[in-house]
């Protein structure tokens, strides 16, 4: 005899949290410009250079240009941290410090590729940046050597002389974070940074850095950005009720902007969540919209639910978790759950000869057959969540979900 069912309803008012996310981005462009070789560049070189060569090598001041594509970060994100990492792998005999400054104009990266040690660059090609041209051959810098902010975004006091192996150099601080924040909010202003020596009169102070074109992928320039973002949705309520062996989830929104879908996630332990359904969102609205999903034939015990909101750019945020407890004994029980190789079933009905089918949550039929015993082989199923349906000899239909690990 089945136990009585307990019904529980929760109503929560909250918004999706500002979850913190960290992304690591590679440089989308980098280049070197040379004061003594004003028509040279190094758009596809393995290295970029900062500092001043010795007089015997033309005494050329060299500056590096770097840019990062931030389009994967939501425009409404709040940047909490930004850290630029570059690797210096060769240093001339004189130590020097570095300055990072925000560029004020667009610049180019062509196909120039210096040979050998790359110290003097190669003749610029179309779209390359040079000391005089920000985009060769027609767009000039307002000031030779680059148009950049008078404010130092970050600095390194000193890079030692004589470095002969890759050494990480990090640049961070409130100004770096502010630069990234401004570019995320207004992508058309993202021209990247210029990296230069803090004292460009020091001869033999040039430093060679690993570029984005290097075969040493782990040493390429990277930008680590940590941000918080709220999806363009206001969740007015999220409720769950248990009745018999079903869990009814309901939620509503008061505003939606570019909202794509809701993913319903379920867990038996509150840690490992699986998506059990998707519900299409309204998309754009300033009026209240209501949604629901029925999770059928849940087992006795605790069940944890949350909603994942996904916008049209693919950004995701999670709701708070709600917990429901059922004292019910479903008509069809599956164990073990989760399972790995076999599942066993018990019901209050006679099982011998009952027809069974196993479907994906999307409804695709994966297995079917007749029960000769109370055990079903699921070894060929990939990991995931499934529906088991039994049809007894009397025609009674029973359903239950199970998880294959």
From TrEMBL:
Superkingdom of origin: Bacteria
Keyword Calcium in annotation: no
Record keywords: Signal
InterPro entries xrefs: Ig-like_fold, Secre_tail
Gene3D superfamilies: Immunoglobulins (2.60.40.10)
Signal sequence extent: 1-19
Domain Secretion system C-terminal sorting: 334-399
Keyword Transmembrane helix attached: no
One Pfam family recorded for the sequence: Por_Secre_tail
Protein name as annotated: Secretion system C-terminal sorting domain-containing protein
Organism in which the protein naturally occurs: Segetibacter aerophilus
